[in-house]
What does this fold into?
Amino acid sequence: MMRKSFGSSAAFSLSIRKRAFFSTSTSTSTSPSLSPLDADDAAAGALKSMNLFSAINNALHIALDSDPRAYVFGEDVSFGGVFRCTTGLADRFGKNRVFNTPLCEQGIVGFAIGLAAMDNRAIAEIQFADYIYPAFDQIVNEAAKFRYRSGNQFNCGVRFSSNLYHALEHFPSLVASIVGLTSGGLTIRAPYGAVGHGGHYHSQSPESFFCHVPGIKVVIPRSPKQAKGLLLSCIRDPNPVVFFEPKWLYRLAVEEVPEHDYMVPLSEAEVIRHGTDVTLVGWGAQLAVMEQACIDAEKEGISCELIDLRTLLPWDKETVEASVRKTGRLLVSHEAPVTGGFGAEISASMVERCFLRLEAPVGRICGLDTPFPLVFEPFYMPTKNKILDAIKSTVNY
It folds into this structure.
């Protein structure tokens, strides 16, 4: 099995600069109002410039520091990991809580499930999302079904009893706080997506495989601030979570991130650019490309509303529906191949909910139905120009 390390190489740093990092529009006509996260930032006051891998590292520090039952493990994590996301963790928290594993993804996730089932917070790293497939059985047949197969008595990290159910009926707030303090959890981190030179074994976007599985959550951040808050939410969630990190943005994405402990809610999409003519939906690194297309479309008089889904399973249908009802048009973009991609689920759901409000067919601008290419990557990717062409075609339909 071929494994390619990008690490902190100059080639990696150079390649990611070829792609624009997402930034919220500052235009007075499209800039969204202050989000709750931004309001908290202003109140807290303590911000630090971080790139995405530093924000991930900061979140892991907080998770380990705030909960002695949290553990981080995976291939090479005690050395800092291929992308340096776990740098310094073993030195600070010890090799009993941050440790390397054999090169065996099925074993990593299987161990994580057992650890979480014993009321610990298991934070497992799969070195590249391309290699998560050997662990597929453990994720979809074990972790995702842990609660269901026990009749809601057991979960990956929290155990319920009949007495607790009885108390839950009468004192829900009290029991919720107790469960929050005593439950464990399972989070599986994996770098995903294109990187400029990764080829077919280090560039895949496998999120749609897991979005077909009831019992797990799938989360993908777009920026350092989002990554930190979403990762902490995933780690503290009682459900198994697959957390895909856009590796193209590990060093490229830089913004002011709160140094304090905070969480971004799961299953809540965010409207990051308001508009009236067409709705665009995406997640992860693709938001940067979509933002640039929206800016170019605005120069031609087209007002685009851009939504970051953030959580793909379970996803925020209501936010997307409200936007599509307003604009009457929908485009979805992702790096994964178009056939069977999660964009198809979004498209079908919005047709069901908004059929009479649609002014044009739903469009998908996605990767091609081929193995991820190396030298032909620019032709495979859903680029800014492809998205801009789709915006014009949809608005002029």
Q: What stands out?
A: DSSP finds 17 helices and 14 strands in the chain. The two ends are 48 Å apart (CA to CA).
